[in-house]
Amino acid sequence: MERFRVHARKRRGTKVSSSQQIERAVANTIIGRPDLSRPAVELIAQVHEREWLLSELVSRTTNGWLGHEQRPHQYSSALPPRIARAMVNLVAVPGDRLIDPCCGSGTALVEASSMGIEPFGWEINRTIVEQAAANICHHQQAAWLVVGDGRTARGSWNGAVLDLPYGISSERCDDVARGLVEHALEVARLVAVVTVDDLSGLFAGCGGEVLGTATVIKNRLHRRVYWARSIGAC
Predict the structure, then answer these.
(1) Tens digits of per-residue pLDDT, 41-84?
(2) Where are the domains of the chain?
(3) What is 2-56's CATH number, 3.40.50.620, 3.40.50.1010, 3.30.2300.10, 3.90.180.10?
(4) What is the dihedral of CA 74, 80, 82, 87, to 10 degrees?
(5) How many CB atoms lie within 10 A of CB 203?
(6) pTM (predicted TM-score)
(7) Which CATH class is domain 63-230?
(8) I want to staple 107 with a disulfide (CB 3.0 to 4.6 A). Which of 5, 28, 84, 188 is the partner?
(9) The sheet that has 118-123: what strands, in order across it?
(10) 176-195 pLDDT tens trace
């Protein structure tokens, strides 16, 4: 690997070597020539007491997305832009195609577009689709929008994000959740799903493998994010 640079990131409370020692130790294991001033490849070494994770830096962001909270149409149940952006980051990189089969007011679509990802959104309610379009235009972003059931979408995408509906106004049931997750795993390689339900046993039966989970909280409502990859048809 030529012209690389290593950046160390220590998790809070980690009592290991200094950042410079970590960077030097990782660099010494790589065959190639480092370049600290104009690197062609940048690596991030995330360090904890018992584990080190090495990843490649593929893009940088600005703080412009912090203004995405302000938009013409908002719903209390909508994902915060920060969480939507994190989910998009889990499944896609700039230049990829991303699908959101339950796009709602377009939060994930705005974040994806602002990151250089081509987003496609499905929403069964025409009025909400029009509101999503207004939100996307408000932030001067672009996305493909379709009025219809996201489970009928045909094509292939690099990643999928899915905010499963919940609450009195939704049909929340196992069949709906399973159908949406199955479809996402069929059309995308990586999937990020947020839900109020425990889906830990669902992915294996839908041709998916869970790579990680996290709990997010909004207005005292606890929701779980599942990050998974497709390993075959259901």
Answers:
(1) 999 988 877 788 888 887 776 666 555 566 766 776 678 888 99
(2) 2-56, 63-230
(3) 3.30.2300.10
(4) -110
(5) 22
(6) 0.73
(7) alpha beta
(8) 84
(9) 144-147, 118-123, 97-100, 157-163, 188-195, 221-230, 208-218
(10) 888 899 999 999 999 999 99
